[in-house]
Fold this sequence. Notes:
Blueprint: H1 2-50, H2 70-75, H3 84-106, E1 110-112, E2 118-120, H4 121-139
Antiparallel strand pairs: 1-2
Helix pairs in contact: 1-4, 3-4
Amino acid sequence: MLSQSIINISTILNYLIATLISLTAGIILFLFRQRWRADKLRSIFIADLEHTEPQPNIAQESKDVYLYDSVMRANAGKLGLLSNDERQSVIEAYAKLRRAREGIASGVVSENSANGKNFDLIDDADRAMEDAVTKLKQNQGLF
């Protein structure tokens, strides 16, 4: 009877250890996959922001002002993979890019800030895009 109890406890412990190993491996694989997906997303945003100009092409009509953010729209649901700082800078970059393009389309290229200073929408978008790219590159490829 005692040997039967020891065998049952041994079997239970073996199953428990196997389950813990499987669970740990699953968690590690999940975290690795999330990190890989975040890196891929960083690469997408870096490529888009580095090759996007606030000023639309001459051939681009004003009605196409919203087409620039197709990369952002396609990946908006994946922003949670990025850090808070990265996410905020990417959203700010695309928002300022949109505002600059809307301003160009309407003929307004500068605005007054809250403190009364005039600032150029294109320069503001350029700075925000550069900041986002810098923050994304800082965390890219950290496996």
